[in-house]
Structures are given as C-alpha cells and as structure tokens.
Amino acid sequence: METAIEVRDLTVVRGAREVLHGISTDVPRGVITGLLGPSGSGKTTLFRAIVGVQIVSSGTVTVLGKPAGSAELRRRIGYYTQSPSVYTDLTVRENVRYFASLHSLGAAEADSVIREVGLAEQAGQMVSTLSGGQHSRASLACALVTHPEVLVLDEPTVGQDPVLREELWERFRDLAGRGATLVVSSHIMDEANRCDGLILIREGSIVAEGGPDEIKSRTGTDDLDQAFLRLVRAQDAENERGKEVA
Ligand SMILES: Nc1ncnc2c1ncn2[C@@H]1O[C@H](COP(=O)(O)OP(=O)(O)OP(=O)(O)O)[C@@H](O)[C@H]1O
User: Residue 27 sits in which domain range?
Assistant: First the structure.
C-alpha cells in the first residue's frame, strides 16, 4: 500500500521535556488510521509535526512525498484541532464559505458540508452562540470543506452525541473511500474499531501498530481497551527485565 505519511526517528522536545522519543511509522494512503493513547502521550504533538507546525529536535516527517510543513502541502492537508479555529463573530455559513473560498470553492460546496456535519439549522447562527459540540462541528466543517488529500483530525467526535458520531464516521469512511488519507485520534475504543489501522502511543513511544483485529488477536482479547492494557503491561514487564539485566 502506498505511504501517505512517513515518520522517521522523530524526536520532539516541548518545554524542557522530550515528549516524542524517536518514533517511526508509515501511514498508508486512502485509509483511516487511528492514533490512540492516554492523555499527554504525544498524539497532538505528532499531529502538529505531521501538519508542520511543530519544531522537531531530530528525525523527519514526509507527507505525500514532501517535507512536512512545505508550502505546497498547505492546500493538500486539513487539520482539525481541539482548540477553536473558527471566527466566533461570524456565522457558521460565513466561516465555512470563507474557508471554501480560500480554496476556490463555492457556496454550494460549503452549504453541503454544513448539512453533513448536522448544522443546517444553525447555519445562520453566530459561532459565539453555539453549544460546545456545535462549535466543534463548525470547525470540522471548515477542515472538511477543502477536500484535502490528507486529513488530520484530533478527537473530532468529542462532545458529539451517538447519532452524530455515527454520521461523522460515515463521512470519514466515505472520504477514505474516495482516496483521502485520514489520521484520527480518539479515546473511544468503539471508534478505534472503525479504523483500518491503529497506532498505539504511550509516553511518547509507539507501543503497537496494526489493524484492530490484528491487535486483538495478538493480545488474545476481543476488547481493544483490554488489548491496550495488556500491551502496556507487557511493555512494563519488558522494561523491568531490562533494568534487572542492566
Ligand atoms: N507547549 C508546551 N510546552 C511544554 N510541554 C507541552 C506543551 N504542549 C504539550 N506539552 C507536553 O507534551 C506532552 C504531550 O502532549 P500532547 O498534547 O501531544 O498529548 P496528547 O496525547 O495529545 O494528550 P491529550 O489526549 O490530553 O490531548 C504532555 O506531557 C504535555 O504536557
């Protein structure tokens, strides 16, 4: 399978601490890859490196064959962040149409994405007056409207109800079906099961990679939460053995 994102020996220091410790991974094109890990494990930092907004200490990140952060990637990569990225003093429609216009797309394109994220009724509403979940969906609409080849989505379904989560995942699946590469972080294991591939990260290192079924069978459980715990325990035991030998 062709590689969309290649990460090699990536080390990142934030503040005074090393938060990614020389990680390497390949994200294939045209599929949904889930990035899972506890809070503070380095998911957002890895996303920032992929999008090219993170200063890296060493190693490389290559996206669609170009160094992460290259000017030519700007139009080809979409980033949905957990922090607000829409104008609160504009309506939903104005925001999405504005992002669409930056990519020479029209109002119809924007309105269709607004419907897809379930904000048709709020299209004329000022973003500052939206609920938290609606605000997040307005940001998501802006990331989706440009039809990027690579979409990096940092916990895109947080705060959404089960019906909307289902619809958003259908949309993600549809985008991957049309050739887009999606990398999605989540804490929800039910969502991890929907991904084609998973990267499990812990304390700045990759603990395991593989499809959900592969990871479950490797750890002898049908439950991804359990699988993750077993991998963590196995890693801890290995580290302990390493210390004893040293
Ligand atoms: N600006 C910063 N300065 C110093 N340390 C930072 C900064 N931003 C993040 N960190 C630290 O880097 C580590 C990784 O953070 P990161 O945001 O990548 O984790 P995460 O896995 O995305 O967490 P969450 O699931 O809670 O969003 C954490 O220990 C965090 O405290």
Answer: 1-42+50-76+183-246
